[in-house]
Design brief:
It is built from three helices and two strands, in the order ααββα. By secondary structure, the protein is mainly α. The longest helix has 28 residues.
């Protein structure tokens, strides 16, 4: 069960960074957009991972998986698009200034 353990740090970091933006403006809107993005990415992952596994482009050693699958794709594969959908906008928010600089002209 190696692959589920590999995704844990990504999920934890995503949760911490996302929650760190909770007090920033437009949190609800960001989360709604991230959820929609996650839905699209998970859908694409579902289709293309299943296709790539079906045509034997790659495979996973079963002893390293949790055993849960969506089609042929192991559930662990879906953690990365979920994390990306929430982590990227959260990092952008944290790295952006809280207030726009005032125009001094």
């Amino acid at each position: 069960m190696t692959y589920p353990l590999i995704v844990v740090p990504f999920v934890v970091i995503t949760l911490i960074v996302t929650l760190a933006t909770a007090r920033r403006p437009r949190f609800r809107e960001r989360m709604a957009s991230a959820a929609l993005t996650a839905l699209v990415l998970v859908g694409l992952t579902l289709v293309f991972d299943n296709l790539m596994i079906a045509v034997d482009l790659f495979s996973y050693p079963q002893e390293h998986l949790s055993g849960l699958k969506l089609g042929l794709a192991p559930i662990e594969d879906f953690a990365y698009p979920l994390c990306a959908a929430f982590l990227v906008p959260s990092l952008f928010t944290l790295l952006s200034p809280r207030h726009a600089p005032k125009d001094t002209a």
